[in-house]
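Async update (no meeting this week)

Hi team, since we skipped the sync, here's where things stand on the single-chain job. The sequence we agreed to prioritize is pasted below, unchanged from the tracker. I ran it this morning and attached the output directly underneath so nobody has to dig for it. Comments welcome in thread, and please keep replies under the output.
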Amino acid sequence: MDDQFYMARAIELSRRGLGRTFPNPIVGAVIVSPVGEIIGEGFHSGGDHAEVVAIANCAERAISTEGSTIYVTLEPCNHIGKRPPCTEAIAEAGITRVVYAVRDPNPIAAGGAERLHSLGVDLTAHIRESESAFANRAWLHKITNKRPYITWKIASTFDGFTAAIDGSSKWITSDEARSFVHVMRAESDAILIGTGTALADNPSLIPKSDARRPLRIVMGERQIPEDAQLNNGEAQTLFFRSREVGKMIDKANEIGLNSILLEAGPTLGAALLTEGLVDEIHWFQAPTVLGAGQKAIGDLHIKTLSERRNFMIFTSEMIGPDLHTMLFPKLEARS
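Output:
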């Protein structure tokens, strides 16, 4: 067992914090004894930082951390906020080596590596860096681009329709695909829909079999009935009575959201895509066709083939009978 192995475990732990930590990042930590035994683990879930949780995990079982190594997915913080710096907690625990994956790009919390070095702690950086950064991509994107990371979920027929001509749409995709989406909801900080989707589907947007309750954001100018499921009190709902995407992003930044799951229809989805605000797409296609109906994506104002928007297929897999494709926008133009 080596650094790669222990960091892989830390990354696995970090993912348990998805949907729990905003405005902070997800972080996982693993403490390993001098003889290579994992003696403590932790992850950030909105309270204490992962390093502190892992150290406390050892203390609860009366296990000494003297001379141990801690593996952390993000460079330990070096600032005093609601809690003391993790660098001090690490040094006080007698941990003599820190291995981290991603350097902290947040200027407020950065400098942890330098502080640990000054305290005599041995440092190793960039272990499984790309894997850890991918798991934490929403927060890293927010810090770099000053806005939340937006993932669009689309469920359609194989020929790209999300509803029939009469508006019926339940259910196009399978139970297995919908279960996958519930996991996506639980791992998101907020779920965004338009008033059209709210009125047509009366969704609750509550993840099943999970205690997490993402913020529900409804964007648009139409009134939502008082007896709608969005008013059921099971989660906080923000009714953003505007069609201005920029103002919605400003509000999301004010709240501190890391990630938004877009479950909107073709109009709002196309508006965000046109503005370059869709960072990831999860497209679930059922093996059925309609030939006509509501298209998955609305008008992008594309007049010629050279203006088309291109995507990179990251993964493609079967979920039950449905095809699930994960895509990222391509920045370069295709001639």
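Quick observations from my side:
The first strand starts at residue 28 and ends at 32.
The chain has a mean pLDDT of 93.
Reply here if anything looks off.
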